[in-house]
Each structure stands twice: as structure tokens, then as C-alpha cells.
Specification:
heterodimer, A: alpha+beta, Sufe protein. Chain: A, three-stranded antiparallel beta sheet, 6 helices, B: 398 residues, alpha/beta, seven-stranded mixed beta sheet, 43% helix, binds pyridoxal-5'-phosphate
């Protein structure tokens, strides 16, 4: 597996690992069967993400994309955070091996799921702001939807 | 600990091994001095021929077979392909179109079976139990008058389980079925006697026992008719064309000789290290050993840690200079974790957290202690950041 230096850096020294006990929004995506779960915790003050933490079960790319995603949304407004795409996460990491691109999709979805949860807690219908969002769409049955990779047990 | 931290700790000997320096020494003259083509008439060619035939005798002797029953190939994959396809297509002529194998074979066998299925063959993939053994009664039941071949691996490359090969061979012979075994992981690590163990065809590969890569052999019982696989020149008794890899063949024989020297004593020591390693790894909470504790390859350790994913564990171990492998989806080449771990009944989420360590006689207790320390650190670290682990712990408290 050829990871970029940035990916390795974020894997070996992940930023913002942990939990926020009094989080304002929590998003969890992925599933253990596929081998990756991402959970993002947000602290939001006056529409600004003042703190963010994550916990991830998954491969090196899953950890690195979670870490990068949290960096990209920290101190940003909710609107800015909602604009973060998986491309942005990918580019910030100097790319991922093709089979790992889905990890960046998971990271984007984890952010959205956490914001969705924030709106829901505030009794705001998230669908009006975010449109339809299905955070259960990550399943390993769908070929491009998991952090799978190369190489073989020989 | 600091000093060994800087050097590489190789614990992936099931993937491949280092070439023994004595093997390299034996091979070197065949590159620049004795480079003659073994088919040539002059003395330079005859030297190559002589050494190839010497090598064949050594290999034959170590397996308790005859020199004319040993064919050199380019490795385990070719030997498996050749054995299975040749027998299958030959037996088809007499109406036999059924083959039996297991669900835990190496892809060199499994994908060969898939190929044959595309060509109209029927293949039965035998289930294995929780330790990776096929059921002998089940094997017996699955044999029909259409069954041409049974191919069951000698020892599994992931979980190290060693099958009851003599019994499998006996059942095959009682039912007039040919028996092939992929012994790539076993040869050079345990003593094998093809005659006593009722084996008709056996695949082996030099790089798994401190020989060079890209050279292997197929043993074929002399009473069996095997068709050539590669068409061309008359090398290897007209059965496997292509100018011989003299250096490789000499290296294979030397490596086999060396690895079987003091095998009993070496294995005793290796098994002590393996058990020490396993017992200490199992002290990590929510870990489990995959494969049988006793009937397993001497250096093999395969263990699952709940709540973490194998690739990230390997990356952390690599940071600590330790080479190992895993059967997680992220290392299996597909979306599913290893077919072997699934076949022994592990749920996906547990199979994702597997670690395979395969020791050689060169690994020291000091290295094992260092690896134990680093594995403990890495598992703790990954669990601390794993939402899955969090769930497991919460369930436990309920
Ligand atoms: C059980 C088994 N069969 C076949 C092979 C293929 O052997 P080779 O790499 O020599 O082609 C391997 C290892 O790679 C193996 O472990």
C-alpha cells in the first residue's frame, strides 16, 4: 500500500482524536462488517465549529481521512463545513490509492451526519438545509463503498 | 531494546524468506561460470545438466520419491496450475468432470478451480471446522464416480493448520481418485514422505524455505500420466519446456537439504518460541488464536484482536520495524476479509482485526519480547480511538 507522506503523517499522528462529552452533534457512519466506522463529535457555538474530535475503527486511510476532515472543519461555520467534499479531504492528503477513495467519502459523510444530528437536537429539520442525506448508504455490498485495498495474504 | 528497534524484525516468513547465505553461495557459479545451457552437448552445458540432475536426486530423496517423479517449475503457482489443470483435462476424456478441494486453499488453487468451472467442470469446495480441518467423512461422501481429483493443501498459509494428509490420500486411493496437495507451506518445515502419505502430486516452492524466488517443483507419482503444461523444448522429460533455471534449481535443492538438517531439533525450539509468543499475545483481552494449537505449522501465529482493524495494526508495527501481515479486507484484495478466516466461522468484524506472525528459526526471544511490547502498544492505541471497541466495552458493562 503506497500512502502519501501526508496520509502517513495523519495516520501516525492523528489530529483531534477523542470524544467530546458535551458534544452538540455526533455523527457515526460506516459499519463493522465492512471494516470501518467513523464517529465525529462537534462543539458548536454561534454557528461556528469551535471544537471537533473523532474516533475511527478502520484502516490507515480511514484514520487519516478522519483526522484531515476534522482539521478542515475546525473553526469553520456550519455552512463552510457542509461544503467540504470528499475531494477536498483527498486533495488535502495528497491523494489516496484508488481502492481507498471511499474512506474520504466516509469522512465527508461523518461530518454531514454530525451536523444533521446537531440540527435535529435543535429541533431544526436538517432536510430543509442539507437536503436528503442517507448516512446508511455505506455498505460493503456496494463495490466502491468500502475501504478495501490491494495486496494478498501469501 | 533500543538497538534492535533500529533493525528490521522479520516475522512474515510465510510470505517469503531470506535466501540462506549457503544457498546463495551454491547458486552463484551458475550465473557467470557454469552458465551453459543444460541441453548443450559440450562440457559447459553438461555441467549444468549434471547439477540439475543432482538437485533432482536430492529433492526426490527428501520426499521419498524417485528423480523421474520430480519436475522443476517456476514456483508454487505454476505447480498448482499444472497439476490441477493437467489431471482435470486428462480425466475429462473418460467422463470425469468433478473435482474436490477446500474453501481455505491458496488462490493459486482456488482461482485454478474457478478457471476449470468456466470450462464446465464441477468443483466441490469442502467446508472446514473452526480450526480449519476438513471433515474426512464429508470428503468421502462428496466423492462420486465422476470425481477425478482431490486437491487439499498440506498446511494453510494463513492459520497454519496441518491437515490429516495420509488419511485424505487413503480415502482418495480407496475410491480411485487422484490426490494432489499444495505443500508450499509445509515442504522444508515438516518431514514429508509422499509414498507413506498417499500423495500422488505435490507442489512446492523454494522461496518458502530460504531458497530463491521463482523456482519450485511438482512431484508426480510415476504411475500417473501427466500432460505437459508449457509446450516447447524437451526439458524436464518433455513435460515442462523452457531452458532450466539452473541456479534456481541448485538453490532449491540446497535450501531443502539445509532446512531439513536438524529439523526435529530446530522445530522443537521454534515451537517453544511460537507457544511463548501465542501465550503472551492471548493475555491481551478479547484476543483469540485462529487455527489449531497443536496441529499447526511450527512458526505460525494468527490472532484476532477485537475492535481494531488489521491494516492499521500492520502500519503501526511497520513504524516499529516489525514485518507482519493480516487477513483484513484492507489486505485481502477484496471487500471481504480473508476467505480462510471467514471459512473457520469468524464474523467479518473480528476477521478484520487479524494479525499473522510467521517466525523462522532466526527469530530470537529478544525480538519476540520487543514485538509483544509493540503489539500491546499498538492494540491499545487503536482500541482507544475505536468506536467499535467503545461499543464492545459498553456491551460488556451491561
Ligand atoms: C499455500 C501456498 N500455495 C501456493 C503459493 C504460491 O507459491 P509461489 O509464490 O511460489 O508461486 C503460496 C505462496 O505464495 C502458498 O502459500
Amino acid at each position: 500500500m503506497n500512502y502519501s507522506e501526508k496520509v502517513m503523517d495523519h495516520f501516525v499522528n492523528p489530529r483531534n482524536v477523542g470524544e467530546i462529552l458535551d458534544a452538540d452533534g455526533i455523527g457515526e457512519v460506516g459499519n463493522p462488517k465492512c471494516g470501518d466506522i467513523m464517529k465525529i463529535y462537534l462543539k458548536i457555538d454561534k454557528n461556528i465549529i469551535t471544537d471537533v474530535k473523532f474516533k475511527t475503527f478502520g484502516c490507515g486511510a480511514a484514520v487519516a481521512t478522519s483526522s484531515m476532515a476534522t482539521e478542515l472543519i475546525k473553526n469553520k461555520s456550519i455552512e463552510e463545513a457542509l461544503k467540504i467534499t470528499n475531494r477536498a479531504v483527498l486533495e488535502a492528503l495528497d491523494g489516496l490509492p484508488p481502492v481507498k477513495v471511499h474512506c474520504s467519502v466516509l469522512a465527508e459523510q461523518a461530518i454531514k451526519a454530525a451536523i444533521w444530528d446537531y440540527y435535529t437536537r435543535k429541533n431544526i429539520n436538517p432536510e430543509i438545509i442539507m437536503g436528503k442525506f442517507d448516512n446508511t448508504s455505506c455498505s460493503c455490498e456496494d463495490n466502491n463503498n468500502s475501504c478495501s485495498c490491494e495486496s494478498n495474504l501469501i | 531494546m533500543e538497538n534492535i528497534k533500529k533493525k528490521l524484525i522479520y516475522m512474515d516468513n510465510a510470505a517469503t524468506t531470506a535466501v540462506d547465505s549457503r544457498v546463495l553461495e551454491a547458486m552463484l557459479p551458475f550465473f557467470t561460470e557454469n552458465y551453459g545451457n543444460a541441453s548443450s552437448i559440450y562440457s559447459l552445458g553438461r555441467i549444468s545438466k549434471k547439477y540439475i540432475e543432482e538437485a533432482r536426486k536430492i529433492v526426490a530423496n527428501k520426499l521419498n520419491s524417485l528423480p523421474e517423479e520430480i519436475f522443476f517449475t517456476s514456483g508454487g503457482t505454476e505447480s498448482d496450475n499444472w497439476a490441477i489443470k493437467s489431471i482435470a483435462f486428462d480425466k475429462l476424456k473418460s467422463g470425469k468432470n468433478h473435482i474436490i478441494t477446500s474453501k481455505i486453499e491458496h488462490h493459486a488453487v482456488l482461482n485454478t478451480m474457478k478457471f476449470l468451472e468456466k470450462h464446465g467442470f464441477k468443483v466441490t469446495y469442502l467446508d472446514v471446522d473452526e480450526n480449519g480441518f476438513i471433515n474426512l467423512d464429508n470428503l468421502h461422501k462428496k466423492i462420486t464416480d465422476k470425481t477425478a481429483l482431490v486437491s487439499i493443501m498440506y498446511a494453510n498459509n494463513e492459520i497454519g493448520t496441518i491437515q490429516d494428509i495420509p488419511e485424505i490420500g487413503k480415502i482418495c486411493h480407496e475410491n480411485n481418485v487422484i490426490f494432489h496437495t499444495d505443500a508450499v507451506q509445509a515442504v522444508g518445515h515438516i518431514n514429508i514422505d509422499v509414498k507413506k502419505e498417499n500423495i500422488d502430486l505435490l507442489s512446492l516452492s523454494a522461496h518458502k524455505f530460504n531458497g530463491p524466488k521463482g523456482v519450485g517443483a511438482l512431484y508426480v507419482n510415476k504411475n500417473l500420466k501427466i500432460n505437459s503444461f508449457l509446450e516447447g523444448g524437451s526439458q524436464e522429460f518433455n513435460k515442462r519446456a523452457g531452458t532450466e533455471n539452473t541456479a534456481g534449481i541448485v538453490g532449491l535443492a540446497k535450501a531443502l537439504e539445509l532446512s531439513l538438517e536438524n529439523l526435529g531439533e530446530n522445530n522443537q525450539k521454534l515451537i517453544s518460541k511460537q507457544k511463548y509468543f501465542i501465550e503472551n499475545l492471548l493475555k491481551i483481552e478479547r484476543s483469540r488464536l485462529n487455527g489449531d494449537y497443536e496441529k499447526r505449522l511450527p512458526g505460525n501465529i494468527n490472532i484476532c484482536f477485537e475492535g481494531i482493524e488489521g491494516e492499521s495494526l500492520l502500519l503501526l508495527l511497520d513504524q516499529a520495524g516489525i514485518c507482519a501481515s493480516s487477513g483484513s479486507a484492507c489486505t485481502s484484495g477484496s471487500l471481504d476479509p480473508s476467505h480462510v478466516l471467514l471459512a473457520i466461522g469468524l464474523p467479518h468484524e473480528i476477521a478484520h482485526g487479524s494479525l499473522r506472525l510467521t517466525l523462522s528459526k532466526f527469530n530470537t526471544y529478544e525480538e519476540i519480547d520487543y514485538a509483544l511490547q509493540e503489539i500491546n502498544k499498538a492494540v491499545t492505541r487503536l482500541r482507544n480511538m475505536s468506536p467499535l471497541w467503545e461499543k464492545i466495552i459498553k456491551e460488556e458493562l451491561k
